[in-house]
Structure formats: C-alpha cells, structure tokens
Request: fold
Amino acid sequence: MAYDDHEDKLRFDKKRWTVNWNIHQMGENDRHYMLDDLVDNHLTIGMDSIKVKELLGEPERDFGFSYNLGLYRSGLDPTFLILEFDDNGKLKRVKVETI
Reply:
C-alpha cells in the first residue's frame, strides 16, 4: 500500500486494521504503525467490548481478547495487542506483548 506521507501510515485506519493479518504474519504488519494512534485516540478505558469489536473487528483470540501486530518489537517474535475487560465487559487494560 502506498502512502502519501509518513503521517498517514501512523494514523489508525479501520480498513487497514481489519485487512487479513495472515498476509503479513511472517513480516511487517500495518497494524503496528497505527498502534500509538489507536491506543492514544481511539481505545478508552471503560469502552464496551461491543464497541471495541466494531472498531477493530473480531479478536483473533490467540491470547484472550487479542489482535496480532505481526513482527513488531523484537522483529523476531509476533507481538499482540491484548485487551482485558472487567466483568461488565468494559475495557480495563490495554497491553502489548511479544510472545
């Protein structure tokens, strides 16, 4: 995918987020470029799990309610956005882990 400038690549874009990540599983994944904008401007603590699914699509559930970010931090191992919810289905914690 071509980008007009670097800033566009860093902005959260639902269409780019929901593209089948398996295509990029062994290499870079556009999701990791958007991560900061997603966490800072789109995911909020207390957000309902249904709203999260509307925003990000169904979780891949590799590790609970998670989304694959591809080879992000280490460059060698897959990294995941892992979301934790309280008993009422409200977002309580957002973490990124390399597994």
